[in-house]
Amino acid sequence: RISMPRLEEVPERFSFPKGEEEILEYWKQNDTFHESVRLSEGRPPFSFYDGPPFATGLPHYGHILAGTIKDVVCRYAHQTGHHVPRRFGWDCHGLPVEFEIDKKLDVKGRQDVLDMGIATYNDECRAIVGRYTKEWEVTVGRVGRWIDFSTGYRTMDLSYMETVWWVFQQLHEKGYVYRGFKVMPYSCALNTPLSNFEVQQNYKDVSDPAVVVTFPLLGEEGASFLAWTTTPWTLPSNLALCVNPELEYVRVREEATGAVYILLATRLVQLYSELANPKKAADARKKFSEVERMKGSALAGVEYAPPFGYFEARRASGAFRVITGGFVTDDSGTGIVHCAPAFGEEDYKACLEHGVIRRGEPLVCPVDADGRFSDEVPEWRGLGVKEADKHIIAHLKAQGRIIKVDVINHSYPFCWRSDTPLIYRAVPGTFVAVEAIKEKLIANNKQTYWVPGHVREKRFQNWLENARDWAVSRNRFWGTPIPMWVSDDGEEIVVVGSKEELERLSGVAVSDLHREFLDHIELPSQQGKGTLKRVDEVFDCWFESGSMPYAQQHYPFENKQTFEASFPADFIAEGIDQTRGWFYTLMVLSTALFDKPAFKNLICNGLVLAADGQKMSKRKKNYPDPVLVIDSYGADALRLYLINSPVVHAEDLCFREAGVMQNLKSIFLPWYHAYRLLVASVRTAEAREGASFEPSVGEALGSANLMDKWILAAANGLV
Question: pTM of whole model > 0.90?
Fold first, then answer.
């Protein structure tokens, strides 16, 4: 028999939110969470990594969902005999913080920050990173999640930043780091390049101009190449035209004007759209006559006149002629690509291969860091490039150089923080050679277990198979500075891996690793090259969060044994958007450092959307405040609604408050009244028999009553 205290009377009406608050107060008074962790010391460890959120915004349903999944798994691990430390963390650096300060201080560009001073700017950033930490603690605690805020890590702490330096130094020593000049997605609003996985986060359907431009052949009056582009703003920077050497091109003469045009034979429809209509095709063919056909290779080397003469001096070094490239396709445009190597990755590669540009030489890039034309394009100096499109089109139409203007609707990348259109722009930067470890990444991914499995096998696997070298540098201010000191000629490079090493090499005492404390420090050359200066860059904040398994422990400077005993993590969980974010950077860095995955098991949840399927928006006010929902129905009803939905299997959930209320009505209230009935029945039995109720496990298990058997089976199914 089981000895138990007398059952207390329960009221007919009960407030679940208030009942939860009483339990929370009990936990607080008895320090129940920390005591449970302390009492479990010595048990087999169960390691868990909590992905760091930005503290510049309030927690939303997506955070509550992921937190609930983490809490359920970690509680289960504890209850099955494991020691489960749970530590919260904060992502403190990067574009989200800087963007808030830029708005506050009306910062329009990089020069504004330099004028006010990096120290002043970073002080402003430092002041807001903890703006909502209290609200996070309250909300996370209110939903019943057990996690330690008191020992939480922050990516802005010196210990964390020092480990990030160590990670980078290890990559450099393994040969995975290089300085390069690449065409990258670039945010004009933030003055910095973005990584390829950041770009994937914010595509929008937009309308852009699509124009067909003439490029007259030199020495052949009346004949022109035709190139099609959706970025007229790049035309002032044209240096070459590219054709596919294997495809067939055609020279046609317009009957009305006598003009001769050269384009891909299968793309005449770009010039004469009626050719696509069987009923009008015959009339369309009367508008031109075919002069000759030739392979693209036959056009190589032919010179032409560019749309603008700003860089005519480049002709002597190989510009303004036709080059060849296999990237030119026949599925759109004219089959002739206008190349502005500073603004297109394929353009850059093709022009480099054919000697139009050369490594180490200045690149034609008449666009400044803010995405505005420089003095090299005087007509539109100071004008944003996207804004300049219409002016350039009007100018070239007046010159007779544009023969067709259309509008194209397509998907285009926007900056994930400023929500402004990105451009592609050649920038110098620091890269991690991810492509060199691609096969290891794929192999390590197979060692992990995901829920749902198809995300690992398809979405994440495909992302790894197409992995590109990672641009880890950002031309910003509030972040962990890249610890790379370089000579003026770029040939001597020193990568520092710790605060102590920097002090030893420089002779300067260091109290903080942010830019304002480091930018003045120079290192003496070991090769007679004077002094080495630090590269003017900070780390991509994704590099910092990907370093979290090591940096939260200040590894390898401290906690070496603790880290090595708990790595890889037994469990992590975040939203499906992290397949191209945190999950990816964790895998890249752990593979590069240790040739291991950073985690063993992963639960990937879907997105929580508004009831109408739209993204939840504070501006649109299309979702109920989580605090009000919890105050109305209780955190348990909300947790159960989220955890018992398809969203835990990476499907999207259209959040409906009625679903939370239904849990209260159909699960919690019936359970409560069943308990009230039990108490009332016990009271009746005690009064009838004159003895207190003593539960008996043996009698219960041996009962022949069909209802008893069903109750026991249902209870066993629950646990």
Answer: no
